[in-house]
Design goal:
single chain; alpha/beta; Elongation Factor Tu (Ef-tu), domain 3; Rossmann fold; 2 domains; six-stranded antiparallel beta sheet; 5 helices; 12 strands; binds flavin-adenine dinucleotide
Length: 238
């Protein structure tokens, strides 16, 4: 199917909530007869003009696929951003033109027993669905999340992730901030090869690493992970 023939559906916003200073969570109602199948890491596309199927941006559902009556997106607002600016102006009761879900680098049951996740900023969105899906279903999978942000207040869903790290033996995390507050116990600066070597699971048949963030971050970190011995096909971009 070419992008011109894509099926666009309008979904209604039933909740909108601020998450951090520049991100909001949108919940969209899913009508009962709709086929909205995805795996954690897959994405949808939003069209600011439903009559122009050539202009869209992808966004990644953060809910788990077993939820059938809504899907949820966390969207960062960029100054002058075409689609994020459009979404900033959308609110309760508004309909938004969406296609998909479309396949991304996603988590599939049984693909690995040890999952490293490296995220920068809104690159966390695929990891949210993956972490929720793995922990809520008590899968026999260990997860370590390395999550980079500018400041502590920019950490999306920090409270939820902290709770998971406390509650579940198979989930742990490490935040890296450009600059931490006074007494910050975790990382500062950039995610480096040394840090990934120290924190993430080493290469093995049972290990995959998901990396999501700005394009240059993804490319650089994948290169470094491969230097650490992770095969290219086990370093996945959602
Ligand atoms: C597979 C996939 C999944 C994605 N999932 C999400 C998601 O769940 N949540 C989310 O918020 N975003 C997500 N994105 C990013 C999203 O698709 C848009 O790129 C983003 O919202 C900016 O679009 P825009 O139209 O607002 O900005 P544009 O009009 O395209 O750009 C406006 C300005 O913002 C800057 N800009 C745009 N994107 C970025 C960026 N990523 N980092 C830094 N500066 C940028 C541009 O340089 C430009 O100056 C995803 C991207 C991909 C490829």
């Amino acid at each position: 199917m070419s992008q011109k023939d894509v099926i666009i559906t309008r979904y209604r916003i039933i909740e909108k909530q601020r998450v951090t200073r520049d991100t909001s969570r949108f919940r969209f109602a899913l009508p009962p007869n709709i086929d909205f199948k995805f795996l954690p890491g897959d994405h949808i596309k939003i069209y600011p003009d439903r009559n122009n199927p050539l202009e869209f941006r992808p966004y990644t559902p953060t809910n788990t696929p077993d939820i059938k009556d809504y899907f949820e997106l966390i969207i960062k607002h960029y100054p002058n951003g075409k689609v994020s600016g459009y979404m900033k102006e959308r609110g309760l009761g508004d309909d938004v033109a969406v296609s998909g879900p479309d396949k991304g680098g996603h988590f599939e049951d049984g693909m690995a027993k040890k999952i490293g996740m490296v995220a920068g900023g809104t690159g966390i969105t695929p990891m949210i669905s993956m972490v929720r899906s793995i922990l809520s279903r008590k899968l026999d999978v260990e997860v370590f999340l390395l999550f980079a942000n500018k400041t502590i207040d920019d950490i999306i869903l920090k409270e939820e992730f902290d709770k998971y790290a406390e509650k579940y033996d198979n989930f742990d995390l490490y935040y890296v901030l450009d600059k931490g507050p006074e007494g910050w116990p975790m990382g500062e600066g950039r995610i480096t090869k040394d840090l990934m070597n120290e924190k993430l699971f080493g290469p093995s048949d049972d290990t995959v690493i998901f990396v999501c963030g700005p394009p240059m971050m993804q490319i650089n970190l994948k290169k470094q992970l491969m230097e650490l011995g992770h095969p290219g096909e086990k370093v996945i971009f959602p």
